[in-house]
């Protein structure tokens, strides 16, 4: 199934508008299902800090929420169509087309988010991402990301096409975070208050 991970960018390029529209069409209670986790993330961030949204998509609702709380947000996404939507939705924010697996912005941020993006990478690419997270995180910066609940690969759908997801074992995520210089702050598998997301919140030492 890992070959499907190579098709993720093309899939989101072709269905960017449909993906963004599906999120917009969610009922009010689900529109920002991440709000409680974002609040925990923001509680660890210095007021006005620059934040990096990795796999930002169209920028709504997550990056928009961060901007509304007074933060300077840089969004990166591999799909140019997603970045175009991000720029239209959040013209005051910075946005770049970039592959997270090769990210090297040459600067650090006060907080990093990889929500519903990191888990599209193959297990090997996920392992390599922790050094990239560390290279872009200031001391004390929180890192918030989602994964699967257990090691393995899974296939969802986007507009009727197969959508790849993968996860490492929770114990390995803990070890990788520690090795990269992050302390685990909170973890919840399949959080019922967040649409069943498995969420990790860590902080750079």
Automatic annotation (TrEMBL):
Q: Which InterPro entries match?
A: Methyltransf_25 (IPR041698), SAM-dependent_MTases_sf (IPR029063)
Q: Where is the Methyltransferase domain?
A: 52-140
Under the heading SUPFAM superfamilies, the entry gives: S-adenosyl-L-methionine-dependent methyltransferases
**Keyword tags:** Methyltransferase, Transferase
Q: Does the keyword Ligase apply?
A: no
Q: Name one GO molecular function term.
A: methyltransferase activity
Which GO biological process annotations does it have? methylation
Q: Highest taxon of the source? A: Bacteria
Q: What name has this protein been given in UniProt? A: Class I SAM-dependent DNA methyltransferase
Recorded source organism is: Ancylobacter oerskovii
